Amino acid sequence: MDALTYLFSSWLQPELLALTAIGTFAGIYIGAIPGLSVTMAVSILISFTFSWEVNPALALMNGIFMGGVYGGSRTAILLNIPGAPAAIATALDGYPLAQKGEAGQAIGLSTVMSFIGGMVGIIVLALAAPAVSEFAIKFQPRDYMLIGIMGILLVGALSGESLAKGIFAGAFGILLGTVGLDPMTAEQRFTFGTVSLMNGISPIALMIGMFGVSEALLQLHHLQKEAVKQKIDRIIPVWRDIKRYLSLSLQSSGIGVIIGALPGTGGDIAALMAYDHAKRVTKNPEVPFGQGAKEGLIAPESANNAAVGGAYIPMLTLGIPGDAVTAVIIGALFIHGLNPGPLLLMEKPDMFWFTVGNLVLANIFMLAFGLTGIRIFTKIIECPKAVLFPLILLLSVVGAYSINNSVTDVWWMLGFGVFGYFMKLYGYQVAPVILGIILSRLMDDNWRRAIISERDSLGDFALGILTSPLSATLLAIIVFVLFTQTRWWKARFGARTEAPVADNTGASARQG
Amino acid sequence: MQDQHTVRRPGELVFTLILLAGSLFLLWQAYGISGFSSMSSAGAFPMAMSAAMVATAAVVFIRLLRLPGPSQALLRLRTEILPPAVVVFSLLILAYCVVLETLGFLLSSFLFLLSAITFLQGGRFARALLLSVIAIVCVYIVFRLIFQVVLPEGLVPERAIMAWLHDLFAARN
């Protein structure tokens, strides 16, 4: 009974209701604007909400998180610039749909599927939190490392011209992530003796550069081309479509929750894995993947919002953040004197049930705002490119500058923007670079933990992987992904694996 | 689909060569961190990654060598890879970043927007002026005033102006 009271406390108190609504609304736009990230917004908000009570602060942040993960899909669909890493996979099929003039439908469908995914995530959070955390607790360091490799290989294999280019991009990203002082030994890595490099390269600067600047430069090739008028007459998707894709949406949500619940992996990997899953289970898509298949839109959108609920599971039950945003939220909880961990559920069940109920509320707001605010939003893409590109660049500069209030990050952003421009032109994907820099620390730390526990012996390390069912399964998946890239596989199953995935920005721009 | 392209793109060989050379340099740098001292050293993971970069860049390079080179490479480089719009626009961004701190956010962004919009729409200065002013005001309100993002102040004494506006507003109430 008590749990029920806590569950609906944010529904009944006007202040909490309003804060959740504001948070969700702001989150959608923050998530959608390239260069503004949910992580950044939540970090800034922590300083504002420092003096608040814990529940209002949580209501605002839950709303921003839920709205932000969804909002990233908007610009992915309309501009082919994923507003957040979790929307990278959305752009692969969402943008081709928009180019065909079906932006309204794409956004409507992705909104409903995000809602379904979000609900699945929250239900799993509520019901299975203890069980799932027990599963995650069994993960060894080597498993985290294998998951990291799997994630990057998946992006590399999914996209771009060849696996070699995908691996290059992924390895480059990981290497960028190691720049700075080694967190374990404080040795300098790739700092060239400069102080500014000791803190490493900001992933946000890299992201803004590669997704914002390079895309704007690339689009200049098609300045004369008329912008596709976005037909937005049918925003609310037809029931037939929802019913038809419900099964895929639920499967993808399942993937999303599991990936979200794994510490360190969030909506971005969940979305990519769900996209890959959709490609495998959809035998005869109406439209090939990469050219506007609705399956390719539904899977990542369901999964990344399902991952939100999933990400709260290890945060609330183990004290380990499920992804970057929950890492910031965990910081907020510490500030408010709460100690997330195995005891939280016992000592403060009100906190847990409040969070669950509040997330449901945020999810409902997301659906409402998502299905009503599209008309204004789609106007962005109808705005002339001569105004749009300078504005994107302006926002990119503001975003990069505000990371550390320094011009250094602006220069990094610009450098990566130009480099990303050439990468895209020559058939390299930029998504693996971003994923690489985000996962770098996790992979490096866990590789070292794993190899230290095997006393630096590669043989024991390999034996450990092969004899553990979990690690062996992960390794098998990696081998399978590599195998699908061989000529033999492509010749045999070519029809299914070849169509994929135009380069998320470069190829479509070239074709266009 | 576009799995194997049949002709080298203009400049592609040079780009790949730069990637290969850069990867080798990074491998050498990674080796410099802690050499082959142990599998768990600070340099082991970076070395593995840079080695992967060298290997894959080499694969791409060798594959490229087998393809025929592009015809009229220089002309196509200027139209397909670096068209004038991209070059001019890049120079504008570069100039914007250079003067960002000295001129401050407001002035440099305004000048950047004005010149970039005028250039991209091919003239129509008055329209560009209007759009730039509107855009700058919106960005300023959203980022500086709502998100409280600190932006370089530079020449425009915006804090003094804001304080003056604030006083004016306070006096009226």
The total strand number of chain A stands at: 2
Mean pLDDT of chain B: 86
Average pLDDT taken over every residue of chain A: 79
Shape of chain B: flat
Order of helical and strand elements of chain A: HHHHHHHHHEEHHHHHHHHHHHHHHH
Q: How would you describe the shape of chain A?
A: globular
Helix content of chain B: over 70%
The value of Rg of chain A in angstroms is: 22 Å
Question: CA-to-CA gap between the ends of chain A?
Answer: 58 Å
SS summary, helix count of chain A: 24
SSE ordering of chain B: HHHHHHH
End-to-end CA span of chain B: 67 Å
Strand order, sheet with most strands of chain A: 1-2
* Assembly context of the chains: heterodimer
Helix content of chain A: over 70%
* Uncertain residue segments of chain A: 495-512
Strand content of chain B: under 5%
Query: Which pair of protein chains has the largest interface, and what are the residue counts?
Result: A-B, 66 and 65 residues
